[in-house]
Structure formats: C-alpha cells, structure tokens
C-alpha cells in the first residue's frame, strides 16, 4: 500500500512534468559539442543571491549582483586588465596632461546604443555630469572641476588636483554609459537601461528573474556567444547550491566556503572560480579610533596581538583563505611585505592590556555583528580570544542597515567589517584619508576615523604622482601606517566568494578586452562578478 | 452585521498600521544610507530626507500616509521608486497561489488522515499517524524544505528546486514550481488540521444520533463521511481561518528558501532596506486579507453546521 502510494505520487509528478512541455526560459538550448573553441548559441541560467535595486548606473546603488546583471546591457568606459592595470573599453583612449590634472577621454567610433543612437562625446559628457550631480556618487567626483566637449568623440575632464588613478573609477558604476534617452528618463532606466552592451533586456520579474537576449547589433563583432542569459534570484545560499546540483541553473555565485570545498572536489562536473589580487576584499574588525578605549593605540594593538587569525580561518572558512596584514592581498602588485603587523602573541597582548589597565582601569567595549550564524561564530571566537588577553567584550547584534548607519555616524566601538576591493589603491582614498574623518555623530566616510598625517600624505602622493615606483612606495607607507596604528584588526583576504559553474559553461574569467588584452578574471565583493559577452556553453 | 464588521475592519486597520508605522520607525538605521550608499555626503542625505518627508514628525508622516491611503495611494517605494501598489500587485498572485495550494494540500491530506485516525482511534494506524503529525509539527519549515528539495529535485529530479513560473506563462510549470513550496508550507498545517479533526470526530462518533444511525444499519463509511464529518469540522474551519496568519508568516521563509517573488520576500527585503512605505502597504494588504478570510470563515460555519444557521 505504502509503496503503491509512493509509486502513484512519483508517477503523478512525472506526468505533471512531462505534460508541462519545456520549462519556459529555463532550459539550455542545443549547442555544438566537443569543440574547444567557443561556439555561438545556447542559453545560460545563472543563480544570484539578490536582485539589483535598479539598473540605472546614475540613480541606483550597485552591489556585486547589480554589476553581473547590468554589465550585460550597459558597458563602462574603462575595464581592468588581468595585470591589474586599467584598459580602455568603450573609450578608445584616456590621455592625461603632464600633471595628470586633466584627462581627455576619446570614445571608439561606430558604437551604437541598443536604441540605435550613437555613442558620442556629448553622451559621455552628459553621463559624467549626471554622475557628478548624483548624490550616490558625487563624493567620488570631489577632485573634478568640470567636463568639456573636446570634439565629437572626446571629453576633457578638468580636475582640481592631479589624479593618476582617475581611469580606474570609470571601470565602476561611475563610468557605465547609458543612452541620452535613459538619462532623460531615469525612472525608466532603472528597469530598462539603454546601453551599448552585448545583450538587451527581454524580461524582468523583480526578485525572481531577469532575462537578457543577444544584441544583434553589438559593436564587438562575433560577440556575444550566448543567445540568452537568465539571471535567477535565489536568496538562500543552500537552496541555490541545491538548484545547481539539480540542474536548475548552470552557474551560481556564492560566498559559502562549503560550496567552494564541495564543488571544488567535483572537478569533472563543476568549475570553481575565485577572485584574486586586488579584487579580493578583507574581512576585519573595524575599530573606532575616536572613542575610548579604542582611541588608545595600545588597546588596538593588544586586540591584534590577541587575535589568532589562523584559528578564525580554520573555524570560519574551512582553512581556504590567507591571513591578512593589510588591505591588499599578497598576490596583488601593491602588497608591501611587513613583519610589523601585530600578529598573534598572547603574552604581548596581555602585557599591553596590563599597561593600559594600570593607567585607565579595565578595558571593555561593545562589538557589533550582523546576526547571521557564520559572522556570529567569528565574533564569539574573537570575544573569547580577547577575553584571554584581559579585554571584556560584549556582543551586540545589528542588522546590515543598522550596522552601516552606526559605522557612518561613528556610533560604535568595534564592528565586523569587509572592505578594500578597489582595483587601484587610490580607490580606498576616501575611506582612509583624514579629511574624510569627522567627529562622532557626523557622517564620515573614514569610518574608523583614523587621523594620521603620514598616512594621508602617502594617500595624497599616491593619488597625484604618476611615477609607478613612487606610488608603490606611497602605498607601502599606507600599509605600514595601518599596521602600526591598527584601525583594523585584519583577519583574512576574503576570497571564498566564488562563481561555481557546471562543466558545460566555458569562458568564465577568460574575457579578452577590445584591444586584445586579457581582462581581470573576476572582481567585486562579497561575490565576484565577470563579463558575460564571452561566456559560451558546450554540450561535451 | 456587515456594516458592523466593516467598522471593525477599519479599527483593526487603524491600530495595525499605526503600530507597524511606529515600530518600523523605531528600527535603528537610516533609509537614506540604504538608498544612497556609503559614500553619500551629509548634504545629500539631508536633502533626500527632506524629499522623502523623513524630517517631519512621526505623527504627521503617519497622518499624511493615511490620507493618501484613503485615496488609494499606497505611496512610492524608497528603493525602487515604483508605486507600492504596483509592487504589491506584481507579488500578490505568487503569495496567494502559494497560500491557496498550501491550504489545499494541508486540507486535502488532513481530512482523510484525520478520518482514518478517528475511525481507528487508539489502534496502530492512529498511533502511526499521530507520530507522523507530531514529527511534522516539530520540523521547522526550512529544514523540511531543504529535505524535500534534496529528495524531489536533487536526487529524483522530478521537481524544480527553486524558481517560479507564473501561471500566465505556463500552467504545468507553474504547478511544478509551486508544489514543493506549498507542500513544505502546508505540512505543518496538515498536522494541526488532522489532529483537530481526529479529536472532534472521535467526540462526534460518541453522540446519540450516531448510535441511532448505527442501529438503523447505516454503513460505518456512510456514517463517518455523511453524518459525522460535517459537525466535526467546525474547529477545523476555525483553524483554517486563524492559521492564515501563521501561513503568511511561513511564506516569508518559504519564499526566500524557494526563490519565489511574493509578498513575504518583499516584506523582508523592505524591512532590511528600511523601505517604510512598502512595508506599510504590505501590512495593510495582509490585515485586510486576514480579516476578510476570517469573515468568510464565519459564513462557512453556517454552511457546515445547519444548527448555527438556525441559531
């Protein structure tokens, strides 16, 4: 009887599926198989953790999933190469004057938006002006004085100060160019942006799916390879991985180390792609240096000495990541080695704590954490380690919105934090420079409120000096000062964010830029993203 | 009677919306940070706060929102800048379908299970069904959901693990996409309904008129289904109405787990992004739905038990 019931239920389900015909916008179409060279056609279903808040680069805040979705339709002026150096994308060239306080952007000819209008210097100027006026991005444009048309395809950017890393910013949301029609109707552009991208929007169901289809008039000949991409929004990480296993999606973005370990072991069936170098963010405890007891550098150093980063990595990341001693990972060209970071040494931590306690009394503070179990586990681990050194820490849970707001206003003592994944070190300028540190209660982008003349001077020099070796020295100084002043107790370079795909999905991280250079394989945090125009599917 | 109920609905709405408005505004965190991001300046935040009316006192904001609501304007989402009514209209069919199918699954299974258990009360089948009911009651929906996905999607590949196909696009795929979430959501209710029905049926089967029916030689099956089931269903019908709240709460988890674009997901996302007006709109929708369903339940009583109609 029981077996019969199971059989009946199974038959009914099979019949239901069989009678339903092919799943609409879900099944990959046939592609040529067995070939190593890319083949055109086919469909990719890609699982993301969250929907974009909107697709308009001027008015909507972009998270990593936004970049995955929007970059199929809207492209940037600049991209970052595999060597970590900026390369022109929609731009033909970006040329600075001798002082680097004026840049001329010249766009490629023959590029049209999906509405048929051409990409011109005027459109680029209008985009950049809209970005400068946007409350989302205006702070980044602080050094920009004006934009001037310098010909039908060229825009001159006049700066108040030399800014050698300016092109890197154009590889982000700021440099993504939409058509005049999208600038004129930003609300419509939030749902249907008009860009120059390899795909155009076919269907969008908020919090469910976005389907983009091949742009037949794409300016890069022979691209894209895929006919269609469906981005499926699957917020739960476990069921997202299960959907990949069940064949419901072809690729997923994840931040779970379990997924990296599990799918990484199945090399014949899946490929796992992780970000490297500057693209990797750092996981840390951010300390508010403007409030007691963390305004005392000895306390901050004691915390770093008491933190066993190896233990945290083993517990939280299945040992997958590498210890961090600064904002840039060891495989980045900007990393400066330094044995001066206060690594795990409980005796030193205890000694510093005793020294401070003798002067100021017992050390205690509140540590903020988001309530998710993995983060809480890390926070409790730190609490235990710091308690062993004699520091009493209480944990307070705050959701993401509350935690960010407290960081911005300085209304915290210490908090878990993830940051520093800009392609160029200058991308961290506004987060570390003392001119962005405001008193507690005022909005400040320098959240740790660290004020250090040497650090800020190095950031200024790195921003303005065109000599690569001088910049390298400047950013070595930045790292050295961060190790000495410890506004952040660094834990690890958080490269467990990964894209996991079935074997038939090819080309992830193998993008070639318009001028023939290889692009940075993956970028962004917490989940890395990548371009889609050169992804293809094989039915090997 | 209807007028009386409408007045009651208005009072319930007023209380619920005011409380939710106050509670939302007590949440720490600033919507402007969510909208503008980390790198926005103080000036930009202040300007946005003014544009959204967030610089006004709470009571004035609530009154303005209520005034707009009375004219059918649910407001505009802070995050998507779309009318809240439009967002709710997009999401409501998903949640409604999920709720209806979950209730259908729960009732469709609970009635035969409850009847079978009552008929064989105290015997092996009853004990097995009781154990299964308690197991279902004590299993959190997210655990059950993951298990069902593992079996039906990953191992057997019979149903999609996640995702949603609207009814208007393809009926078959819509049913396959709603089945696992609905079963997951309905299982907890199934156990409650089955237990309630079993208990009431056992009591009914001891009534004099049932003894009389037996004496008249009616078959046990006929007695059970024709004469005992209807009067035993009053508690069940009440539970169906009252449990709507629990089911709506469950949709928040189920929609996240299975990636369904329903009202539950919208509420969660809106709370995290401090999108006050979207949460308020959802609260109105759910409150009205809840009160109306329970009103309908009152009407069903009369149909189920003629004694109530006569009274």
From TrEMBL, chain A:
Residues 1-20 form the signal peptide. InterPro entries: Peptide/Ni-bd, SBP_5, SBP_5_dom. Pfam families: SBP_bac_5. Residues 87-431 form the Solute-binding protein family domain. Keywords: Signal, Transport. Belongs to the bacterial solute-binding protein 5 family. This is ABC transporter substrate-binding protein. The lineage of its organism: Bacteria, Bacillati, Actinomycetota, Actinomycetes, Streptosporangiales.
From TrEMBL, chain B:
SUPFAM superfamilies: MetI-like. The chain crosses the membrane at residues 7-27, 98-117, 129-159, 171-193, 233-259, 279-304. It comes from the Bacteria. The keyword Membrane applies. It holds the Pfam family BPD_transp_1. It is found in: Cell membrane. Keywords: Cell membrane, Membrane, Transmembrane, Transmembrane helix, Transport. Its main location: membrane. The keyword Ion transport does not apply. It is a multi-pass membrane protein. Residues 92-301 form the ABC transmembrane type-1 domain. Belongs to the binding-protein-dependent transport system permease family. This is ABC transporter permease.
